[in-house]
Every structure is written in structure tokens, then in C-alpha cells.
TrEMBL record:
Keywords: Cell membrane, Membrane, Transmembrane, Transmembrane helix, Transport
InterPro entries reported in the protein's UniProt record: MetI-like (IPR000515), MetI-like_sf (IPR035906)
Protein name (database record): Sugar ABC transporter permease
GO BP term, example: transmembrane transport
Pfam families referenced in this protein's UniProt entry, alphabetically: BPD_transp_1
Length: 312
């Protein structure tokens, strides 16, 4: 009778509260993700879809109409010798820089991991290059490598090697870009590898010492296997970033001389913004994305970088 008169059972409010709390707990993670999803749609997915769309158009910001041309941009792209030259230059640059940065970064990480004092000071000094903007680094090395008053030529003459036209010589321009990139981004590789070295426990080293392993055997058969996944992650991150190099080339060589430093990112700028061929530039970006994603997918599949180890 009390219920018929509008009086609710005692446990009704607590039950409703618990149901609302349960619904909130279930939807909570999705509510937290909403701002990130919105930002992803605005700044990643929509620009990519727009890029894909204009790659099939003869798109120009000053044109009244933007006609669809189908795969013409892609056909022209694969017939362009500048595109194939850019692929070759990009491949040489990426392989050279990432390899050198890994070797030097690993050596520095091992040395810093062995230091007993002054480690923080040396880390701070070594990390200075990555705190600088690539445009600043490019301009600095442009002055340093100047064939008339550059400091590198001063030391080169001092040691009897003569002057070098670093940036105007087709045989040395790409080497100059590689040296600049290695100087700036080796500390990035070093800090990742050093963090990995710090996470290795002492037990494997103690076991190797008991077995009479030499320093080189310990490094090759203990340190490298323990560090393998960190190494793969560091290589992947630097490979992705190396493909996008633009700032340094713009400040130092502007793609020259005779296109020896013209990478994929550079010809995107050259075609898209200099000659306002946005559709053609978009097609280059799509091909570049496919190449990078395909390469990284193969590497991730081969090395199982993010494989979760089963619980024991």
C-alpha cells in the first residue's frame, strides 16, 4: 500500500545510485578518450583524408576549379626522375645517419653508464644539440662549413688538408648534411640506450663474470640481448624522424647542388609550395607514407618489438 501511495522502498535510492555509479565506471574510460579522439580527428585523420583527396586532383590554391585527374599525379610521379633521385638520396641519408647515430650513441651510453662521478654533467653537455632547433643547427653548420671563412676549413688548412667546398661540391654536400644530423640527433639515441642500460639488472653480469667471460663477450652476449627491444625502438623512432628531414636541408643547401641533397620531404616542398602543384605534392606524400608504414610494419613484425611476454 505504501508503494502504491508513491512511497519508494528503502533500498531504492541506494540501488539507483549504485546503477548510476556502475554506468559511470563503464563509460568513464570512453569519456576520458573523447578529447583525444576529437584532436586526432581534427589534426590527423581529416588532414590525411584531405591529402588523399587532393592527390587525385589538379589542385592549386589560386585555381577557381580543382578538377579530378584520377591517377595522373601518381603516373607522372613514377615517371619523374627527380622523384627516383629523391628516393635514392633519402635512403642513403636515412641508412647513414641512423647507423652512425646508433653506433656513436651506444658507445656514449656505455661510457656514461660506467661513470662513477660527473654523469649528470656529461649528460647535460651531450644533450645540448637536441635542445636546439634544426633550423638553428643548419644555419650554424652552414657558417661553419663555409668555404671562405668557415671554422672547419680553418682547421682543415691548419692540419694541411686544404680547403673544402662542403656545401657547393656535389660529392660532399650530402656528407655535410649527414654530419650535421648525426651531431644533433646522436644524443637522442644515446639517452634512450642509456635508459635501457640502467634497467639491466646485475645478475646476468655476475653470472658472466663467474663463467670467466671477457668484457667483449659480456657486452655481446649479455648487454646486447638484454637491450635488444630498446635498440629496435630507438632505431624505429630515429628512422621515422630521419625520413622527414627538411629544416636542415633548407638552411644548408636547399636541395642542391644539382639535387644531390633533394630528399622526399624537400621535393614535397619544392612541388607543393614553390610551384603550387599541391595535387602532385600530395601524391608524393601518400607514396612516402606508404613506404614508411610498410617498412616499419615489416620491422615490427620481424623483431616483435611490442610483443607482450606471458605471465608466469
Amino acid at each position: 500500500m505504501h508503494f502504491m501511495r508513491g512511497t519508494l522502498p528503502r533500498n531504492y535510492h541506494s540501488g539507483a545510485w549504485n546503477m548510476n555509479k556502475l554506468r559511470l565506471n563503464r563509460s568513464g574510460p570512453y569519456l576520458v578518450m573523447v578529447p583525444g579522439v576529437i584532436l586526432l580527428l581534427l589534426f590527423s585523420i581529416y588532414p590525411f583524408l584531405f591529402l588523399l583527396k587532393i592527390s587525385f586532383q589538379k589542385y592549386s590554391p589560386i585555381g577557381k576549379t580543382q578538377p579530378y585527374v584520377g591517377f595522373d599525379n601518381y603516373i607522372t610521379l613514377f615517371q619523374d626522375h627527380n622523384f627516383w633521385n629523391a628516393i635514392k638520396v633519402t635512403a642513403v641519408f636515412v641508412v647513414s645517419t641512423v647507423s652512425l647515430e646508433f653506433i656513436i650513441g651506444l658507445a656514449l651510453a656505455v661510457i656514461l653508464n660506467q661513470l662513477r662521478f660527473g654523469e649528470r654533467l656529461f649528460q647535460s653537455l651531450i644533450l645540448i644539440p637536441i635542445a636546439m632547433a634544426p633550423t638553428v643547427v643548419g644555419l650554424m653548420f652552414r657558417f661553419m662549413m663555409n668555404d671562405q671563412y668557415g671554422v672547419l676549413n680553418y682547421f682543415s688548412e691548419l692540419f694541411g688538408f686544404g680547403r673544402n667546398a662542403w656545401l657547393s661540391n656535389p660529392d660532399k654536400a650530402l656528407t655535410a648534411i649527414i654530419i650535421t644530423d648525426v651531431w644533433q640527433w646522436t644524443p637522442f639515441m644515446m639517452i634512450i640506450l642509456l635508459a635501457g642500460l640502467k634497467g639491466i639488472s646485475d645478475e646476468p653480469y655476475e653470472a658472466a663474470s663467474i663463467d670467466g667471460a671477457s668484457a667483449w663477450q659480456t657486452f655481446w652476449y649479455v648487454t646486447i640481448p638484454q637491450l635488444s627491444k630498446i635498440i629496435y625502438i630507438a632505431l624505429l623512432l630515429r628512422t621515422i624522424d630521419a625520413f622527414r628531414i627538411y629544416d636542415t636541408i633548407y638552411m644548408m643547401t636547399k636541395g642542391g647542388p644539382v639535387n644531390v641533397t633533394s630528399t622526399l620531404s624537400w621535393i614535397v616542398y619544392d612541388k607543393g609550395f614553390k610551384f603550387l602543384e599541391f595535387g602532385y605534392g600530395a601524391a608524393i606524400c601518400v607514396v612516402m607514407l606508404i613506404v614508411v608504414v610498410g617498412l616499419l610494419t615489416l620491422l615490427l613484425k620481424k623483431f616483435d618489438v611490442f610483443e607482450v611476454e606471458p605471465r608466469r
